[in-house]
Write a structure and sequence with these properties.
The protein is an all-alpha fold and 353 residues long. Helices cover 65% and strands 2% of the residues. It contains 22 helices and two strands. This is Transcription termination factor mitochondrial/chloroplastic. It comes from Arabidopsis suecica. InterPro entries: MTERF (IPR003690).
Amino acid sequence: MLLVGGIDSEFVSVVNKLKGLNLGCDWLARYLSDRKTYNWRRILETMKLLDKVGFKEEKLSSLLKAYPDLVGETSGNKAYIMFEKFHKVGLQMNEIDKLVIDNPEVLLEKSVKRILEALKFLKCIRMEKQFIVRFLLCHMKLICSSSFLGPRAVWNRFKIGRDELCQIIKEEPLRLFSIASKTNKGRIELDSLDWRNAEKTTFLLKLGYVENSDEMVRALKKFQGRGDELQERFDCFEKAGLDYNVVRQLVKRAPHILNRPKDIIEKKIIMLTDYLVYPIESVIESPTYLCYSMKRIHQRFTMYIWLRERDAVIPRLTLGTIVGISNTLIVSYFVNTHPEGPATWENIKKAST
């Protein structure tokens, strides 16, 4: 491992700082690589910066434990420049603090470079400060994962002027990631852009897919609908009470759950939480529940509730069991456990035809 910059003083200062956070040399050794060069002055600058923006002791310790890369790949003094620009566009200190807490990657050198590119782009097209603040607060994860062309390159590519470009981004902020992306190849007219695919790509970037990767190509085929439609469907689960990161992981594991219309997803969530009285977290274990028809779900839930009220069935069967098994098995394992079960099952089926 190569050490650069004041080893005797700055390296010791970093180690002492970590010791004060109950991390120490053992923790540091686990996350540093002997194949990399580390600038201890820059690492120390970043730790001081984190302390300055509100990450004191326990808070800073928790952040570093969750994101150990911040120790080895931080941006140091460049982050000061970024925070100064945040202040200039109108971000308040509490908003900057929340940005760092929610998006610790903003302190990585690559992220700082991309954020500064985005700010320069928006300033160059004379975007209002109020818009820039909203854009940073809403789309920081996307900004950190996107490299931007200069405004002139975009003007030349799409044959549009500064004011027109500014208006387009005001109306649909997420288009910035398609219009100004450095990975966008070829000269195509703005009117002929496949916005449907571009918006879907933007949505997938927010889920954590890497642009132009094989995984992204496969995901574009699996997810059906426009980007805004997919986002609305995604939001259904958050509104129902699931954490954003839980939904993100669930959707990456089972993309098909977003291939149903928003109103159908909402109805299935209501059936689960209000009719069956199961917690929304049940879909994490059995996401395929959302793929079955409303008719099947209603029949199975109604029969299960009837049996549950008569203590003829286990009180908390999984959704996969209630909805997923065949009609033959549902009759054998559950319906027939109660003398009146078969007749009730037939009545339920007739009522839903």
